[in-house]
Write a structure and sequence with these properties.
alpha+beta; Cytochrome Bc1 Complex, Chain D, domain 2; two-stranded antiparallel ribbon; 4 strands; globular
């Protein structure tokens, strides 16, 4: 009986120690522009982002930097971009009210199929559907979470 009590007491102490250690673990993910902090604790004051969401955003940021930043700029505001052929195009901002009107499906379709009239290339052969959907979520969170900016020009689709 004494062994059973000691075993239960030892197990309870180990459990409490493990829980106390896990609630104060922070991991920082990001680059010089923005950092996402993933808190593994169960604090009600700061909601924790799951590691899968943070990884998804980090990979989408890398895709954006590799495929979109040349035209849409690092800040998502677009502007005039010069293509390799010396052609200049007006690139829409992700921050205007116009870009908020599109559903995620429409947005993903535009990325996949491109827009020849606007000069946007198709990324369907270069990006998987999962990467395109992650890119849409990244753009929505990174550039559209504050709401649309008024007074900025846009290009119709």
């Amino acid at each position: 009986m004494r062994r059973l009590k000691l075993g239960l007491l030892f197990s309870a102490a180990a459990f409490i120690a493990a829980c106390a250690t896990a609630t104060n673990t922070n991991t920082s993910i990001g680059n010089s522009n923005r950092t996402v902090v993933v808190n593994s604790g169960n604090s009600a004051a700061t909601p924790a982002a799951s590691p899968a969401v943070a990884d998804d955003l980090a990979s989408a940021r890398a895709i954006f930097n590799a495929t979109c930043v040349n035209c849409h700029r690092e800040n998502g505001e677009g502007g005039i971009a010069e293509l390799d052929e010396g052609v200049r195009i007006k690139v829409p901002s992700f921050k205007t009210a116009h870009s908020f009107q599109h559903t995620d499906q429409q947005f993903a379709r535009k990325i996949a199929n491109g827009d020849k009239e606007a000069g946007m290339p198709a990324f369907q052969g270069r990006l998987t559907p999962e990467q395109i959907n992650a890119l849409v979520r990244f753009i929505r969170r990174e550039f559209q979470s504050a709401g649309p900016k008024e007074g900025m020009g846009h290009q119709d689709d």
